[in-house]
């Protein structure tokens, strides 16, 4: 085994959103009583070592084959999977050499794992556990895209999904966890992580990390709704996309004529989940609905708002694969660093903008000024441009 490389606000809902203000107004005023407000955690004496990880994903690494509508040709051997893209989202907001190592994830390397890809991932300088599994092929998948946001996915080789038992001790101490799974597995993963933290590491049960749950699309069905409600009480944030959320209720999240997001239906379904309770104790958690080109919908029991997508021109979006996962990596690491829910969703929005500008991963460079850039842009500059539009 290789060594690792390197808000919840509360929808009593008067329905002017965010007390009648804009997201910009909310950022200025903050959210009284929110457990996710405050300043970022300081680093220990400026040392490159941190007290622990901010983010860990239990999503898988997958090598993707992507098929688009004609005449665009298919592409192969693209690094992907929920684990890769969520780690990307967290990494984009975590500069090396310190913050980058607060991003934890696991890559299972099969006998066919490309050496160039290994080198590429190592350059991220994250806390990445690359496990050698020479008796198997690396998990590979086929993504197919069509008109009207059609998407299909299937595995080309047997998958090796991650469990809470795979986490190293330092990973167990992460401040946040990204889970992409069915409702029942969500419950199992949360309970397993908390149990291991307590029994193996002696962590006080009151010191609870943040759990961000991304439901898997094929199990977003009415038959799963009851167990999904149980899962909601185990996580701080749930984040389906608009189609997945509405599918739990047996309805479409798109308008029949235009195919656009049915915002009214999204808000109604989100309200139902909020009423049933998200989070432990009195259920003060949040739902963040990812809605593609229309941005995202953020809601708690007291407040809600829509945030626009970063890219408003379809020409800017080359491949949506992994955009939602990248969003959640950015969101999770922001919450772990005590940002408000709206700020976290803004981080997620900006992170996702880098993921969808090309097929596969964005290009990372370091300029003569020593500053890191993704696709030629500094993250802080892109973040400021987005804030100016709110």
TrEMBL record:
It comes from Verruconis gallopava. Residues 1-48 are annotated as: Disordered. Residues 218-360 form the Carbohydrate kinase PfkB domain. SUPFAM superfamilies: Ribokinase-like (SSF53613). The lineage of its organism: Eukaryota, Fungi, Dikarya, Ascomycota, Pezizomycotina. Residues 25-45 have a biased composition (Polar residues). This is Carbohydrate kinase PfkB domain-containing protein.
């Amino acid at each position: 085994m290789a060594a690792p490389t390197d808000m919840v606000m509360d929808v009593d809902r008067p329905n002017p959103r965010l007390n009648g203000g804009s997201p910009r107004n909310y950022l200025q005023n903050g959210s009284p009583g929110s457990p996710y407000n405050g300043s970022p955690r300081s680093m220990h004496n400026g040392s490159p070592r941190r007290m622990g990880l901010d983010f860990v994903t239990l999503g898988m690494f997958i090598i993707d084959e992507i098929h688009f509508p004609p005449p665009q040709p298919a592409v192969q051997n693209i690094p992907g999977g929920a684990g890769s893209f969520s780690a990307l989202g967290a990494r984009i907001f975590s500069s090396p050499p310190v913050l980058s190592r607060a991003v934890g994830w696991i890559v299972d390397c099969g006998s066919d794992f490309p050496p160039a890809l290994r080198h590429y991932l190592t350059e991220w300088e994250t806390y990445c556990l690359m496990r050698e599994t020479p008796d198997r092929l690396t998990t590979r998948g086929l993504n197919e895209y069509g008109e009207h946001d059609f998407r299909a996915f299937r595995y080309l080789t047997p998958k090796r999904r991650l469990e809470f038992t795979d986490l190293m001790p330092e990973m167990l101490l992460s401040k946040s966890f990204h889970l992409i799974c069915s409702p029942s597995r969500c419950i199992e993963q949360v309970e397993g992580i908390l149990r291991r933290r307590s029994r193996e590491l002696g962590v006080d049960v009151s010191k609870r990390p943040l759990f961000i749950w991304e439901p898997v699309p094929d199990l977003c069905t009415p038959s799963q709704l009851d167990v999904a409600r149980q899962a909601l009480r185990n996580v701080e944030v749930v984040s389906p996309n608009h189609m997945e959320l509405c599918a739990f209720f047996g309805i479409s999240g798109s308008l029949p004529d235009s195919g656009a997001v049915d915002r009214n239906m999204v808000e109604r379904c989100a309200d139902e989940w909020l009423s049933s309770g998200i989070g432990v104790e009195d259920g003060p958690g949040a739902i963040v609905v990812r809605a593609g080109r229309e941005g995202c919908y953020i809601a708690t029991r007291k407040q809600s708002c829509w945030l626009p997508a970063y890219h408003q021109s379809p020409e800017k979006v080359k491949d949506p694969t992994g955009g939602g996962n990248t969003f959640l990596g950015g969101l999770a690491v922001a919450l772990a660093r005590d940002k408000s829910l709206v700020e976290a969703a803004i981080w997620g929005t900006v992170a996702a903008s880098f993921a969808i500008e090309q097929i596969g991963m964005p290009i990372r460079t370091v300029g003569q000024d020593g500053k890191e850039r993704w696709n030629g842009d500094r993250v802080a500059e892109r973040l400021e441009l987005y804030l100016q539009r709110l």
